[in-house]
Amino acid sequence: MSRADSLAASNASSSSQKSRRHSRLTRAQILKGLDILGPIDIPLPPTLPPSPPASRSPSPVPSSSKRKLPNDSEQSHSKKQRTSSFSEHTRHQSTPSSSSSHPQARSSATLSSRSDPAEDGELREEIPPQRDTNPLVSSNLPVRRPRRGHLSPGQCEELHTKYHNSGRALKYSGDTRLWSTFPHNHSHYRPLVNPPPATSPYHRHGNLFARIELLDALINFAYSIWINGYRGKRNAGWESIGGFLTWTKGKWEHNNSTDEREKAFLGLIFMVEAFIYGRMFALETSRINSANIELHNKLKKEAAASSAGPQLASTPAMLPSPVTNSANSTPTNPSRQDGTPPSGVNGPSATSRNAQPVSARPPPTTQSQSTSQITDLPETLTHLTPAPWLVERSRHTQFVHLAHKSMLASQQYLTLPIMAKHFPRTFARMMYSTLSATDEIEPDVEDEEGELFWPGQLITGEGIGWVCTMGKAMIKEFSRPFGYRGIDGVIPKPAQRAQ
């Protein structure tokens, strides 16, 4: 072997040894290389858009000797800023439990990340609008029923009879059941002929169901009277419901329950009372207004007649002609002391001179007459007020006062926030409704899914239909989980039991 061949072989062996030496790295070398790379963060999930790292330094701005145009500054201010950084996203993703347990800290961190300075070419992520994804609202949306329009007189009569009879049955059942809940030594205690079994909800919730039956009867009575007024009998029966309304209200007031739902039913009773009084004073107002106009016109005529009386009394009798020879006429002697000249002498006539006192009090002008028609009656005018007139005005004032008092009490227990909290289904049926205030006849009282409407202003005299439909919905939503069956669970009257 030559010297050259030996050198080549030695170089090849040394190079192979060096390659084998460099390919085998030690653990220390590997860790050192990893330290150079730095910590590796958890990558973002595929659902989020990638964001540039916050640690990246902003791009250097190239220096230019040219003057910056005004549009450049406007464009720089109009650029959108980035929303958040990569490190903050990874920090939130790495600690999901802590971020979920502290929503306020997460929101503050998000706000702070959105206040980072913007970089050239970066866009701020737009916040999507929040949508109402409340499952309670979505599951309680009302069903839009077909409009049935105006009811015929026969349909109104049928509804009036139906709910009047239902109210009587519920009233008897509520009173009988309530008396059976008193202690045995109480004077009002009356045992039931056929008491429900001990496992029945009517036995466990006897007092509550008795009061609900009384309230249900009140709603039925009010609706039957309202539907009767819808067909034309506008003022029939409202005063007949007053005694039973006071009885039912007393049973709910004396219960002293701390449950907000039961207090809401007390507010419902006050609302029914307020709207009934509102209906009554609205009807009285329309009737009294016509009587007031008639009386006002009568008093104006009396005032005009009394003002014209003194004018007619001050006017003297007409003097006779000077040429008339009469015992009651003025003589034509020129030597009279009154200076009356003879008929052939020129001068002012006696008639014109003696009429001067009449002209000293001029009649009222046209302007004063028109003013007396516009202004109120004179204060000096006296008129005897009949007793029925005072009774009607007193009733009207009393209705206004009672409606005001009842509505003040109602709004203490029954409001829209209370409806949303304890009666979410009824609340959603009113809030997501397409009905208006004039559609009182549209909803069915027994419907549990249709649209409703929050009662409007009682000053209009309307709204009792809305109060009744809302009250029915509240009763069903509250009492259905307890096992209340309404008219199907009443205690029958003795005559019905005999049949």
Automatic annotation (TrEMBL):
<feature type="compositionally biased region" description="Polar residues">
    <location>
        <begin position="322"/>
        <end position="340"/>
    </location>
</feature>
<feature type="compositionally biased region" description="Polar residues">
    <location>
        <begin position="346"/>
        <end position="357"/>
    </location>
</feature>
<feature type="compositionally biased region" description="Low complexity">
    <location>
        <begin position="1"/>
        <end position="17"/>
    </location>
</feature>
<feature type="region of interest" description="Disordered">
    <location>
        <begin position="1"/>
        <end position="155"/>
    </location>
</feature>
<feature type="region of interest" description="Disordered">
    <location>
        <begin position="306"/>
        <end position="379"/>
    </location>
</feature>
<feature type="compositionally biased region" description="Low complexity">
    <location>
        <begin position="93"/>
        <end position="109"/>
    </location>
</feature>
<protein>
    <submittedName>
        <fullName>Uncharacterized protein</fullName>
    </submittedName>
</protein>
<feature type="compositionally biased region" description="Pro residues">
    <location>
        <begin position="42"/>
        <end position="61"/>
    </location>
</feature>
<feature type="compositionally biased region" description="Polar residues">
    <location>
        <begin position="131"/>
        <end position="141"/>
    </location>
</feature>
